[in-house]
Design a protein that fits this description.
This protein has 3 helices and 4 strands; from the N terminus they run E-H-E-E-H-E-H. By secondary structure, the protein is an alpha+beta fold. It has a 4-stranded antiparallel β-sheet with strand order 2-3-1-4, covered by helices on one side. The longest helix is centred in the middle third of the chain and has 19 residues. The radius of gyration is 17 Å and the shape is elongated. The relative contact order is 0.25.
Length: about 120
């Protein structure tokens, strides 16, 4: 079997933040800027608390079967909840999307490279 790579995004909104929590998030905002976003096994958090209370965690995971994406998504959601809860941040409207990169359509450059290699 081949290893599949999954990209999982867990989105939500901060809820009932105290003034101190909001100040802490604002102080750390540069580390969590969307321009630093990456899909990583441990997850990458992005937000712009000055604009709106929304956040996104980006996770990468691997699996052997197509069904493994469901387990990976559950783990990602639990990791996001854990991170938020450990820091005392309230949250709401948690939802996840996942993509199996082996099922993703090829981009223009990838199609061109495949044609050039006779695939």
């Amino acid at each position: 079997m081949t290893t599949r790579t999954f990209r999982i995004t867990v989105r939500g909104a901060f809820d009932a933040l105290t003034d101190d929590q909001r100040a802490a998030l604002l102080a750390d905002a540069a580390e969590h800027d969307v321009l630093r976003a990456a899909f990583t096994p441990e997850g990458t958090l992005t937000y712009d608390i000055a604009a709106r209370p929304a956040f996104a965690f980006r996770f990468s995971a691997t699996g052997e079967k197509e069904e493994d994406i469901l387990k990976a998504t559950e783990r990602a959601e639990e990791e996001a909840k854990s991170w938020l809860t450990a820091r005392g941040y309230g949250f709401k409207h948690l939802r996840s999307t996942a993509e199996d990169l082996s099922q993703a359509p090829l981009g223009k450059r990838q199609r061109r490279a495949a044609r050039a290699n006779g695939l």
